[in-house]
Specification:
- By secondary structure, this protein is of the alpha+beta class.
- The chain has helices at 2-13, 18-29, 32-53; strands at residues 59-67, 73-80.
- It has one domain.
- The protein has a two-stranded antiparallel ribbon with strand order 1-2.
Amino acid sequence: MAVMVWNALALLRGGDSRLWTALTTHFRSLSKHESAAMALIVAESVRRENAHHADDIRIVQNWNLTIRDDGTATLRAGASAPPE
């Protein structure tokens, strides 16, 4: 989900709201409990991206999530300029 939110925000900053609209529409269609949980997660993702990467409009294309035996996770992502 982090990659989808990142890409939706990058596209939104570039003037394309389709992915952001699709994501928020989907999250609103979930049950009240699930929708509320997603709202918190997405809000925190947006806050962090705005705080740390507000000018970055690259699109994540390749990513790999690794979960270690101790429960920690690492996300490696490759990004490039958004499509014209």
